[in-house]
Write a structure and sequence with these properties.
Elements lengths: L1 E7 L4 H9 L6 E7 L4 H22 L2 E7 L5 H17 L3 E5 L5 H17 L7 E4 L7 H39 L6 H39 L26 H13 L5 H12 L5 H14 L7 E6 L2 E6 L1 H10 L10
Parallel strand pairs: 1-2, 1-4, 2-3, 4-5
Antiparallel strand pairs: 6-7
Length: 340
Amino acid sequence: MQTHVVPVGFDYDRVIAPLVRDQLGVDRVILLEGAVGSEANVQYSRNLTGKLETDFQNLLGATTERVTVEDVYDYDAAFEQAYDLINAELDDGAEVWVNVSAMPRPVSFAFATAAHSITLERQADRDRIHTYYTAPEKYLETELAEELRDSSDLLAELRDYLDDRAAGVAAVDDGGSRDDTRHDSQGENARHASNHRDIDDLRERLDAHLEDARDLLAEFDERGTTIGAMEIDGSHIVELPVASFSNVKPFEEVILFELGEHGEFESVSELAQALADELGEEYTDSFRSKVIYNVDRLGPGGKGYIEQESHGKSYRTRLSRIGELWVRAHTNGERESYDL
C-alpha cells in the first residue's frame, strides 16, 4: 500500500500534479491542514484541502484522511506528530511518501527530519520511507504584482477621465445658471447635482483603491512577498535541529526518560542516585560507573542526546534539543520496564 503524507499550505498543483503526471500509485493520502494563522489563510487552506480530498479520490482512486496540525510553527509538536504518523503507517505495512513542497517550513522540515530519523531507527524499513519535493513551473506572485500595476495605471486613467467629466458637468451648470429661459432650471440643476455626487463618490472610491494598490506595490518592490519577522514563543527564530536518531539500548533509554521526566541534574552522580532509587537497585560504584559510561555514549561525542556543562568538579547533565525530541517521540503512555 502506498501512503502519501501531504502537508497542505496554499499550493494545489505541487501536491497532486506530480502523482498524476508520473502515474504513481497512491492508495491512501493523509492531508495535513494547519489550524493557526489569519482566519482568511486558515479558511483558504481548508478549502484547498477539501478540493484536494475530492481530486485525490476522483483522479487517483485514493482514500483520504484529513489531519489537523494545531500549530504550524511548533516544530517539536510537528516532529512528534510526524514520528507517530509515519511509524503507524509503516506498522500497517504501507510504503510512506512524505511531500515537503507545501505548508510552513517548520512542518515540512519536521516531517522530513522525522522520516529520516525513522530510517535510521528502522533499518529494515528504510526502503519503504521516502521524502520528496516538487518545484513549481512558475510563481504567481510576480504575475499578480504586474497585474496590479496595470490595474493601478487603469485606475489612474479612469480618475483623470472623471476629472474631465466633472469639469464638463460644472461648465454646463454654469451655462444653465446664466440662462434659465433655455432650461427647466429646477429639473436640470437637480440632475446635474446628482451627476456631481455620483462622480465625486466614484472618484473617492477610485482614489482609495489606487492609494492602497500603490502602497502594496511599493511594499512588494521593496520587500518581496513577505513583510516582517513574526515572534513565536518569545523569539523570532525557530530552530530546526538535525534529529538523526540512532538505535538506543535499553539502559540508555532509561537514562533519557529519567532526564526527560526530571530535567537537569547537578551531576552524573545525582542522576545515578535517582536512577538507582527508581529502579530499586543498590547505588554502588559499579552502578555509578555504568551510568557514567552510558551518559558518555549519549553525550556530544556519541549520539548527541545529552549535553553537559562543567560545574566545579561536576557536570550539569540534561537533554539536548535532539534528546528532548527523542523522548517526546518515544513517550507513549507508561514507561516500559527493562531487564537490566
